[in-house]
């Protein structure tokens, strides 16, 4: 019998005016009902769908049509390939040389998670917004060639904020690889053993992306 023996939340907190891509309005949270006054507590949130921990569908780029709600839910899980890159430094272009050591793990079952250390830097700073390591066009092409299922990063943009960003998105999304952005990947446990990843986006019709709760977990076989 299989049981989940360990689980790690890979999602960042969503809160009022939390840091986002500066081109976007930050999320706003308001109270509709306040417990002591109304007897109920009820909040309202206003934000775009690519805020905080979220997933991109191919339709995030206008030339592609596949929306997140049309991807079978079974595609939102797979075997984690954890790539530690936190020592590479600011603005490092994650390329083929960074990914080739994991070649034997990269296949149609793989969810590749790029740990840059930028999840811990999350804030309204130039460093967090503009200086993150990013998946380069070369790295994106390599992952597409390997036929992986998905790729995620601990920053709001898989391609950073520089000139390679749009083409990196085009390469991976054009290969029907979904993207998870805004992850939190600094738990030391992720470096040990085999992990499975599940990402469950909000089920929104015709969506180019959606907020998601992303978790990693390990299995154990329980003898009867």
From TrEMBL:
SUPFAM superfamilies associated with the record: Putative cyclase
Superkingdom, taxonomy of origin: Bacteria
Pfam families: Cyclase
Protein name, UniProt field: Cyclase family protein
Native source species: Paenibacillus apiarius
